[in-house]
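Retry 2 of 3 after timeout on previous attempt. Resubmitting C-alpha coordinates to design endpoint.
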Protein backbone atom coordinates (compact mmCIF):
# COMPACT_ATOMS: atom_id res chain seq x y z
CA UNK A 1 0.00 0.00 0.00
CA UNK A 2 1.90 3.02 -1.25
CA UNK A 3 1.04 6.28 0.35
CA UNK A 4 2.19 9.78 -0.13
CA UNK A 5 2.39 11.95 2.91
CA UNK A 6 3.10 15.57 2.20
CA UNK A 7 4.06 18.19 4.68
CA UNK A 8 3.97 21.83 3.87
CA UNK A 9 6.11 23.71 6.27
CA UNK A 10 6.67 27.43 6.33
CA UNK A 11 10.25 28.40 5.78
CA UNK A 12 10.14 30.57 8.88
CA UNK A 13 11.09 27.33 10.54
CA UNK A 14 14.08 27.06 8.25
CA UNK A 15 15.41 30.44 9.19
CA UNK A 16 16.33 29.41 12.69
CA UNK A 17 19.03 26.88 12.19
CA UNK A 18 20.60 24.07 10.32
CA UNK A 19 17.89 21.79 9.11
CA UNK A 20 18.47 18.25 8.23
CA UNK A 21 16.12 16.05 6.37
CA UNK A 22 16.98 12.43 6.37
CA UNK A 23 15.01 9.57 5.06
CA UNK A 24 15.67 5.88 5.04
CA UNK A 25 14.08 2.92 3.43
CA UNK A 26 14.07 -0.58 4.65
CA UNK A 27 13.79 -3.32 2.11
CA UNK A 28 11.23 -5.44 3.94
CA UNK A 29 7.57 -4.97 3.27
CA UNK A 30 5.56 -7.66 4.97
CA UNK A 31 1.98 -7.83 6.18
CA UNK A 32 2.79 -7.51 9.84
CA UNK A 33 4.63 -4.27 9.22
CA UNK A 34 1.50 -2.60 7.95
CA UNK A 35 -0.16 -3.19 11.32
CA UNK A 36 2.51 -1.35 13.27
CA UNK A 37 1.72 2.23 14.27
CA UNK A 38 3.42 5.29 12.82
CA UNK A 39 5.10 7.73 15.19
CA UNK A 40 5.61 11.45 14.89
CA UNK A 41 7.68 13.09 17.61
CA UNK A 42 7.52 16.89 17.57
CA UNK A 43 10.15 18.46 19.79
CA UNK A 44 9.94 22.22 20.36
CA UNK A 45 13.02 24.14 21.49
CA UNK A 46 13.04 26.27 24.66
CA UNK A 47 9.24 26.21 24.96
CA UNK A 48 7.67 26.94 28.35
CA UNK A 49 5.02 24.91 30.17
CA UNK A 50 2.87 28.02 30.31
CA UNK A 51 3.08 28.58 26.55
CA UNK A 52 0.46 25.90 25.95
CA UNK A 53 -2.91 27.60 26.44
CA UNK A 54 -4.52 24.35 27.49
CA UNK A 55 -2.18 24.24 30.50
CA UNK A 56 -3.53 27.54 31.79
CA UNK A 57 -7.12 27.88 30.53
CA UNK A 58 -7.78 30.69 33.00
CA UNK A 59 -5.15 32.80 31.22
CA UNK A 60 -5.94 31.71 27.70
CA UNK A 61 -4.42 34.03 25.09
CA UNK A 62 -5.11 31.79 22.12
CA UNK A 63 -1.57 31.43 20.84
CA UNK A 64 -1.82 27.64 20.54
CA UNK A 65 -5.23 26.80 19.02
CA UNK A 66 -3.95 23.73 17.14
CA UNK A 67 -2.18 22.27 20.15
CA UNK A 68 -5.27 22.97 22.24
CA UNK A 69 -7.30 21.04 19.69
CA UNK A 70 -4.79 18.20 19.75
CA UNK A 71 -5.12 18.12 23.55
CA UNK A 72 -8.91 18.11 23.26
CA UNK A 73 -8.67 15.13 20.93
CA UNK A 74 -5.90 13.46 22.90
CA UNK A 75 -4.06 13.37 26.21
CA UNK A 76 -2.39 16.30 27.93
CA UNK A 77 0.48 15.29 30.20
CA UNK A 78 0.82 17.96 32.88
CA UNK A 79 3.75 16.53 34.87
CA UNK A 80 6.01 15.65 31.96
CA UNK A 81 9.71 16.61 32.10
CA UNK A 82 12.47 17.06 29.59
CA UNK A 83 15.30 14.69 30.58
CA UNK A 84 17.73 17.62 30.99
CA UNK A 85 17.49 21.41 31.06
CA UNK A 86 19.60 22.08 27.96
CA UNK A 87 19.55 20.99 24.38
CA UNK A 88 22.08 18.21 23.63
CA UNK A 89 21.67 16.21 26.87
CA UNK A 90 17.91 16.36 26.57
CA UNK A 91 17.92 15.16 22.96
CA UNK A 92 20.46 12.42 23.71
CA UNK A 93 18.32 11.12 26.59
CA UNK A 94 15.16 11.17 24.47
CA UNK A 95 16.85 9.18 21.70
CA UNK A 96 18.54 6.66 24.04
CA UNK A 97 16.14 6.41 27.01
CA UNK A 98 19.08 6.95 29.36
CA UNK A 99 20.43 9.64 31.68
CA UNK A 100 23.44 11.61 30.44
CA UNK A 101 25.62 9.85 33.03
CA UNK A 102 25.02 6.68 31.02
CA UNK A 103 24.84 7.94 27.41
CA UNK A 104 27.77 10.33 27.94
CA UNK A 105 26.01 13.51 26.80
CA UNK A 106 25.94 15.83 29.81
CA UNK A 107 26.26 19.23 28.13
CA UNK A 108 25.91 20.89 24.77
CA UNK A 109 28.11 20.14 21.80
CA UNK A 110 29.73 23.13 20.15
CA UNK A 111 29.77 24.04 16.50
CA UNK A 112 33.42 22.92 16.45
CA UNK A 113 32.84 19.62 18.27
CA UNK A 114 34.67 16.81 16.55
CA UNK A 115 32.30 14.18 17.96
CA UNK A 116 28.74 13.83 19.31
CA UNK A 117 26.43 11.26 20.84
CA UNK A 118 28.86 8.36 21.46
CA UNK A 119 28.79 5.73 18.74
CA UNK A 120 28.37 3.05 21.39
CA UNK A 121 24.86 4.42 22.03
CA UNK A 122 21.89 2.95 20.21
CA UNK A 123 19.15 5.37 19.16
CA UNK A 124 15.40 4.86 18.97
CA UNK A 125 15.33 5.36 15.17
CA UNK A 126 18.09 2.80 14.70
CA UNK A 127 16.10 0.19 16.62
CA UNK A 128 12.87 0.99 14.80
CA UNK A 129 14.69 0.78 11.46
CA UNK A 130 15.84 -2.72 12.33
CA UNK A 131 12.20 -3.59 12.94
CA UNK A 132 11.29 -2.44 9.44
CA UNK A 133 10.40 1.18 10.15
CA UNK A 134 11.02 3.97 7.69
CA UNK A 135 12.68 6.71 9.72
CA UNK A 136 13.03 10.38 8.94
CA UNK A 137 14.14 13.48 10.70
CA UNK A 138 13.51 17.16 10.06
CA UNK A 139 15.16 19.87 12.12
CA UNK A 140 17.74 20.45 14.78
CA UNK A 141 20.03 17.58 15.69
CA UNK A 142 22.72 19.05 18.00
CA UNK A 143 24.29 15.65 18.73
CA UNK A 144 27.32 15.90 16.48
CA UNK A 145 27.73 16.64 12.78
CA UNK A 146 31.09 15.17 11.82
CA UNK A 147 31.43 11.91 9.96
CA UNK A 148 29.68 9.04 11.76
CA UNK A 149 28.12 11.42 14.31
CA UNK A 150 26.00 12.92 11.58
CA UNK A 151 22.26 12.14 11.91
CA UNK A 152 22.48 10.32 8.60
CA UNK A 153 24.01 7.46 10.56
CA UNK A 154 22.20 7.89 13.87
CA UNK A 155 18.69 8.35 12.58
CA UNK A 156 18.87 6.71 9.21
CA UNK A 157 21.37 5.56 6.62
CA UNK A 158 20.29 6.90 3.27
CA UNK A 159 19.10 9.94 1.38
CA UNK A 160 20.42 12.85 3.26
CA UNK A 161 19.82 16.48 2.37
CA UNK A 162 20.40 19.83 3.94
CA UNK A 163 17.88 22.48 2.97
CA UNK A 164 19.17 26.00 2.85
CA UNK A 165 16.39 28.49 2.24
CA UNK A 166 17.07 31.44 0.01
CA UNK A 167 14.82 33.83 1.87
CA UNK A 168 12.02 34.20 4.33
CA UNK A 169 8.48 33.08 3.64
CA UNK A 170 9.61 30.60 1.07
CA UNK A 171 7.59 27.43 1.17
CA UNK A 172 9.40 24.18 1.61
CA UNK A 173 7.79 20.90 0.78
CA UNK A 174 8.73 17.52 2.03
CA UNK A 175 7.27 14.41 0.64
CA UNK A 176 7.50 11.38 2.77
CA UNK A 177 6.75 8.38 0.63
CA UNK A 178 5.86 5.20 2.36
CA UNK A 179 6.24 1.86 0.81
CA UNK A 180 3.91 -0.16 2.97
CA UNK A 181 6.14 0.54 5.93
CA UNK A 182 5.34 2.09 9.29
CA UNK A 183 7.37 5.22 9.91
CA UNK A 184 8.98 7.33 12.59
CA UNK A 185 9.17 11.02 11.81
CA UNK A 186 11.23 13.07 14.28
CA UNK A 187 10.53 16.78 13.84
CA UNK A 188 12.89 18.86 15.99
CA UNK A 189 11.62 22.40 15.52
CA UNK A 190 13.91 25.42 15.73
CA UNK A 191 10.99 27.22 17.42
CA UNK A 192 10.99 28.71 20.15
CA UNK A 193 14.76 29.19 20.38
CA UNK A 194 16.10 32.69 19.70
CA UNK A 195 16.54 34.24 17.19
CA UNK A 196 12.82 34.26 16.62
CA UNK A 197 11.69 34.98 13.08
CA UNK A 198 7.92 35.16 12.98
CA UNK A 199 6.29 35.57 9.59
CA UNK A 200 5.62 39.07 8.38
CA UNK A 201 2.01 40.13 7.94
CA UNK A 202 0.57 39.42 4.45
CA UNK A 203 1.20 43.01 3.43
CA UNK A 204 4.93 42.92 4.11
CA UNK A 205 5.48 46.49 3.01
CA UNK A 206 3.45 47.68 5.97
CA UNK A 207 6.43 47.79 8.30
CA UNK A 208 4.21 49.42 10.88
CA UNK A 209 2.38 46.12 11.12
CA UNK A 210 5.43 44.03 11.91
CA UNK A 211 5.04 42.39 15.28
CA UNK A 212 6.27 44.74 17.99
CA UNK A 213 9.08 43.62 20.25
CA UNK A 214 6.68 42.25 22.82
CA UNK A 215 4.65 40.35 20.25
CA UNK A 216 7.56 38.57 18.57
CA UNK A 217 7.41 35.59 20.90
CA UNK A 218 3.63 35.25 20.62
CA UNK A 219 3.80 35.51 16.82
CA UNK A 220 6.50 32.82 16.68
CA UNK A 221 4.48 30.62 19.02
CA UNK A 222 1.44 30.94 16.76
CA UNK A 223 3.59 30.05 13.77
CA UNK A 224 4.95 26.98 15.55
CA UNK A 225 1.43 26.00 16.54
CA UNK A 226 0.37 26.35 12.89
CA UNK A 227 3.15 23.93 11.88
CA UNK A 228 1.95 21.43 14.46
CA UNK A 229 -1.56 21.84 13.05
CA UNK A 230 -0.27 21.22 9.51
CA UNK A 231 1.53 18.07 10.59
CA UNK A 232 -1.58 16.84 12.39
CA UNK A 233 -3.77 17.52 9.35
CA UNK A 234 -1.35 15.75 7.02
CA UNK A 235 -1.15 12.80 9.39
CA UNK A 236 -4.94 12.64 9.82
CA UNK A 237 -5.35 12.64 6.05
CA UNK A 238 -2.68 9.99 5.51
CA UNK A 239 -3.26 7.44 8.24
CA UNK A 240 -5.64 8.58 10.95
CA UNK A 241 -6.07 6.04 13.71
CA UNK A 242 -2.68 4.47 13.09
CA UNK A 243 -0.40 7.38 13.97
CA UNK A 244 0.73 8.57 17.38
CA UNK A 245 1.84 12.21 17.54
CA UNK A 246 3.83 13.10 20.66
CA UNK A 247 4.49 16.81 21.14
CA UNK A 248 6.92 17.98 23.83
CA UNK A 249 9.82 20.33 24.57
CA UNK A 250 13.60 19.93 24.99
CA UNK A 251 13.89 22.20 28.06
CA UNK A 252 12.29 25.27 29.59
CA UNK A 253 12.43 28.90 28.42
CA UNK A 254 15.67 30.82 28.06
CA UNK A 255 14.77 33.32 30.73
CA UNK A 256 17.66 35.73 30.16
CA UNK A 257 16.21 36.55 26.74
CA UNK A 258 13.42 38.42 28.56
CA UNK A 259 10.54 39.19 26.18
CA UNK A 260 11.88 36.59 23.73
CA UNK A 261 11.56 33.81 26.29
CA UNK A 262 8.52 31.62 26.92
CA UNK A 263 6.37 31.28 30.02
CA UNK A 264 7.01 28.90 32.92
CA UNK A 265 3.41 29.35 34.04
CA UNK A 266 3.08 28.93 37.81
CA UNK A 267 6.45 27.12 38.08
CA UNK A 268 8.45 30.18 38.98
CA UNK A 269 11.25 28.75 41.12
CA UNK A 270 10.80 31.55 43.64
CA UNK A 271 13.38 30.25 46.11
CA UNK A 272 15.98 30.92 43.42
CA UNK A 273 14.53 34.07 41.85
CA UNK A 274 14.29 35.73 45.26
CA UNK A 275 18.06 35.18 45.48
CA UNK A 276 18.72 36.74 42.09
CA UNK A 277 19.17 33.68 39.89
CA UNK A 278 17.28 32.38 36.90
CA UNK A 279 14.93 29.44 37.41
CA UNK A 280 14.20 28.15 33.91
CA UNK A 281 16.45 26.69 31.15
CA UNK A 282 19.75 25.24 32.46
CA UNK A 283 18.33 24.93 35.98
CA UNK A 284 16.64 22.05 37.75
CA UNK A 285 13.81 24.26 38.99
CA UNK A 286 10.50 23.21 37.46
CA UNK A 287 10.74 25.98 34.85
CA UNK A 288 13.87 24.32 33.49
CA UNK A 289 12.36 20.97 32.64
CA UNK A 290 8.58 20.81 33.05
CA UNK A 291 7.48 21.02 29.43
CA UNK A 292 4.11 21.23 27.65
CA UNK A 293 3.27 17.77 26.35
CA UNK A 294 0.40 16.32 24.34
CA UNK A 295 -0.05 12.78 23.02
CA UNK A 296 -2.55 12.30 20.21
CA UNK A 297 -3.70 9.06 18.66
CA UNK A 298 -7.33 9.07 17.55
CA UNK A 299 -9.15 5.91 18.53
CA UNK A 300 -6.35 4.69 20.80
CA UNK A 301 -5.62 7.50 23.25
CA UNK A 302 -8.86 8.61 24.96
CA UNK A 303 -9.85 12.09 23.79
CA UNK A 304 -9.91 15.17 26.01
CA UNK A 305 -8.04 13.56 28.87
CA UNK A 306 -5.32 14.75 31.21
CA UNK A 307 -2.76 12.83 33.20
CA UNK A 308 -0.57 14.06 36.01
CA UNK A 309 1.59 10.93 35.95
CA UNK A 310 5.25 11.79 36.55
CA UNK A 311 6.89 11.19 33.16
CA UNK A 312 10.05 12.11 31.26
CA UNK A 313 11.19 12.53 27.67
CA UNK A 314 13.30 9.41 28.31
CA UNK A 315 10.03 7.45 28.37
CA UNK A 316 9.41 8.07 24.66
CA UNK A 317 12.11 5.49 23.84
CA UNK A 318 10.69 2.47 25.72
CA UNK A 319 7.09 3.47 25.00
CA UNK A 320 7.45 3.68 21.23
CA UNK A 321 9.50 0.48 21.15
CA UNK A 322 6.80 -1.27 23.18
CA UNK A 323 4.05 -0.02 20.85
CA UNK A 324 6.11 -1.23 17.89
CA UNK A 325 6.65 -4.62 19.54
CA UNK A 326 10.42 -4.14 19.73
CA UNK A 327 12.51 -5.28 22.70
CA UNK A 328 15.44 -2.94 23.42
CA UNK A 329 18.91 -4.54 23.54
CA UNK A 330 19.24 -6.24 26.91
CA UNK A 331 22.96 -5.61 27.42
CA UNK A 332 22.35 -2.01 28.46
CA UNK A 333 20.45 -0.29 31.25
CA UNK A 334 17.69 2.23 30.67
CA UNK A 335 16.10 4.96 32.75
CA UNK A 336 12.87 5.58 30.83
CA UNK A 337 9.69 3.66 31.62
CA UNK A 338 7.11 2.21 29.26
CA UNK A 339 4.19 4.65 29.49
CA UNK A 340 1.85 2.69 27.20
CA UNK A 341 -0.72 2.10 29.94
CA UNK A 342 -0.72 5.78 30.82
CA UNK A 343 -1.24 6.76 27.20
CA UNK A 344 -3.80 4.16 26.19
CA UNK A 345 -5.48 2.95 29.35
CA UNK A 346 -5.77 5.86 31.74
CA UNK A 347 -3.19 4.41 34.13
CA UNK A 348 -1.72 7.16 36.34
CA UNK A 349 1.43 5.72 37.86
CA UNK A 350 4.58 7.17 36.34
CA UNK A 351 8.12 7.32 37.77
CA UNK A 352 8.45 6.64 41.47
CA UNK A 353 11.65 8.68 41.34
CA UNK A 354 12.83 11.03 38.61
CA UNK A 355 16.22 12.73 38.61
CA UNK A 356 16.86 16.10 37.00
CA UNK A 357 20.51 16.30 35.90
CA UNK A 358 22.64 19.40 36.40
CA UNK A 359 22.51 21.23 33.10
CA UNK A 360 24.97 24.05 33.55
CA UNK A 361 23.37 26.19 36.20
CA UNK A 362 24.90 24.42 39.19
CA UNK A 363 27.34 21.66 40.00
CA UNK A 364 28.99 19.27 37.62
CA UNK A 365 27.29 18.67 34.27
CA UNK A 366 25.06 15.61 34.30
CA UNK A 367 25.27 14.94 38.03
CA UNK A 368 21.99 13.85 39.58
CA UNK A 369 21.51 16.22 42.49
CA UNK A 370 17.83 17.11 42.12
CA UNK A 371 15.29 14.39 42.75
CA UNK A 372 11.57 14.19 42.40
CA UNK A 373 9.38 11.64 44.16
CA UNK A 374 5.62 11.91 44.48
CA UNK A 375 4.84 15.56 45.02
CA UNK A 376 8.22 16.21 46.67
CA UNK A 377 11.36 17.58 45.10
CA UNK A 378 14.78 17.72 46.73
CA UNK A 379 17.84 19.79 45.81
CA UNK A 380 21.38 18.96 46.97
CA UNK A 381 22.76 21.92 45.05
CA UNK A 382 21.39 25.18 43.66
CA UNK A 383 22.75 28.28 42.01
CA UNK A 384 25.32 29.65 39.76
CA UNK A 385 28.29 27.95 38.08
CA UNK A 386 27.41 28.23 34.37
CA UNK A 387 24.95 30.82 35.68
CA UNK A 388 21.34 30.71 34.60
CA UNK A 389 20.71 34.40 34.30
CA UNK A 390 17.44 36.02 35.14
CA UNK A 391 16.16 38.65 32.71
CA UNK A 392 18.45 41.57 33.49
CA UNK A 393 21.53 39.41 33.97
CA UNK A 394 21.42 38.62 37.69
CA UNK A 395 22.71 35.23 38.82
CA UNK A 396 22.42 33.53 42.15
CA UNK A 397 25.39 32.00 43.90
CA UNK A 398 26.09 28.31 44.18
CA UNK A 399 24.88 26.68 47.37
CA UNK A 400 25.29 23.12 48.56
CA UNK A 401 22.40 21.81 50.62
CA UNK A 402 23.13 19.25 53.28
CA UNK A 403 20.52 18.38 54.38
CA UNK A 404 18.78 18.94 51.03
CA UNK A 405 16.14 21.55 50.33
CA UNK A 406 12.81 19.77 49.93
CA UNK A 407 9.69 21.36 48.47
CA UNK A 408 6.18 19.96 48.27
CA UNK A 409 4.96 20.86 44.78
CA UNK A 410 1.39 20.05 45.72
CA UNK A 411 1.28 23.03 48.06
CA UNK A 412 4.09 25.04 46.52
CA UNK A 413 4.33 24.85 42.75
CA UNK A 414 6.49 27.97 42.72
CA UNK A 415 9.14 26.18 44.84
CA UNK A 416 9.23 29.05 47.28
CA UNK A 417 9.33 27.69 50.82
CA UNK A 418 11.22 24.49 51.65
CA UNK A 419 9.90 22.10 54.28
CA UNK A 420 11.21 22.48 57.82
CA UNK A 421 13.97 19.95 58.31
CA UNK A 422 12.64 18.67 61.62
CA UNK A 423 9.17 17.70 60.40
CA UNK A 424 8.15 14.07 59.92
CA UNK A 425 7.21 14.84 56.29
CA UNK A 426 10.76 16.06 55.64
CA UNK A 427 12.39 13.14 57.40
CA UNK A 428 10.45 10.50 55.48
CA UNK A 429 11.17 12.08 52.09
CA UNK A 430 14.83 12.82 52.86
CA UNK A 431 15.48 9.22 53.80
CA UNK A 432 13.73 7.81 50.70
CA UNK A 433 15.54 10.05 48.25
CA UNK A 434 18.94 9.55 49.86
CA UNK A 435 18.54 5.78 49.61
CA UNK A 436 17.27 5.86 46.04
CA UNK A 437 20.03 8.21 44.97
CA UNK A 438 22.68 5.89 46.40
CA UNK A 439 21.09 2.97 44.56
CA UNK A 440 21.00 4.78 41.25
CA UNK A 441 24.56 6.05 41.49
CA UNK A 442 25.74 2.54 42.30
CA UNK A 443 23.73 1.18 39.39
CA UNK A 444 25.41 3.68 37.04
CA UNK A 445 28.87 3.04 38.54
CA UNK A 446 28.50 -0.68 37.79
CA UNK A 447 26.87 -0.22 34.38
CA UNK A 448 29.16 -1.69 31.72
CA UNK A 449 27.14 0.03 29.00
CA UNK A 450 28.10 3.56 30.12
CA UNK A 451 29.43 5.69 27.24
CA UNK A 452 31.84 8.60 27.30
CA UNK A 453 31.40 11.51 24.92
CA UNK A 454 34.36 13.25 23.29
CA UNK A 455 33.78 16.97 23.76
CA UNK A 456 36.97 18.16 22.07
CA UNK A 457 36.68 20.89 19.45
CA UNK A 458 38.67 21.79 16.35
CA UNK A 459 38.39 24.68 13.97
CA UNK A 460 38.27 22.26 11.06
CA UNK A 461 35.17 20.65 12.53
CA UNK A 462 33.11 23.82 12.06
CA UNK A 463 30.88 23.11 9.07
CA UNK A 464 30.62 26.75 8.01
CA UNK A 465 30.82 30.07 9.73
CA UNK A 466 29.00 33.12 8.46
CA UNK A 467 27.13 35.28 10.93
CA UNK A 468 24.94 36.68 8.15
CA UNK A 469 23.66 33.20 7.29
CA UNK A 470 21.26 31.75 9.85
CA UNK A 471 22.19 28.22 8.79
CA UNK A 472 25.88 28.90 9.45
CA UNK A 473 25.73 30.67 12.75
CA UNK A 474 29.08 30.36 14.40
CA UNK A 475 28.30 31.38 17.94
CA UNK A 476 27.34 28.87 20.59
CA UNK A 477 23.88 27.44 20.42
CA UNK A 478 22.07 26.96 23.73
C1 LIG B 1 -13.21 18.57 27.21
O1 LIG B 1 -13.27 18.57 28.62
C2 LIG B 1 -13.58 19.85 29.17
C3 LIG B 1 -13.43 19.76 30.66
O2 LIG B 1 -13.86 18.53 31.17
C4 LIG B 1 -14.97 20.23 28.72
O3 LIG B 1 -15.30 21.50 29.23
C5 LIG B 1 -15.01 20.27 27.20
O4 LIG B 1 -16.32 20.56 26.75
C6 LIG B 1 -14.53 18.96 26.61
N1 LIG B 1 -14.40 19.09 25.18
C7 LIG B 1 -14.90 18.19 24.34
C8 LIG B 1 -14.68 18.45 22.89
O5 LIG B 1 -15.49 17.19 24.70
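Retry 2 succeeded. Sequence:
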Amino acid sequence: MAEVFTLLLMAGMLMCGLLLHTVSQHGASVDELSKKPNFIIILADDIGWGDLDANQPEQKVNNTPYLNLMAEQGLRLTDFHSPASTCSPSRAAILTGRYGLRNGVTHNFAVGSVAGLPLSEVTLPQLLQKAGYYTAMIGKWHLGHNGPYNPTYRVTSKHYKVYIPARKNEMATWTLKQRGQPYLLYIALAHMHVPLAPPLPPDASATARRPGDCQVYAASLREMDGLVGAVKRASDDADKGNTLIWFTGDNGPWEQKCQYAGSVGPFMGKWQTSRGGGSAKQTTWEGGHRVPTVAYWPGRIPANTTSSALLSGMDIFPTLLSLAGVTPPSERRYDGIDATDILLRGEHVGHEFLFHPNSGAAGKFGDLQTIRTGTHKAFYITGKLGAAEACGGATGRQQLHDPPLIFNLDRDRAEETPLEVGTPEYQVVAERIARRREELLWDIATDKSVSTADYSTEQSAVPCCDPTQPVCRCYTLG
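Attempt log closed. The radius of gyration is 21 Å.
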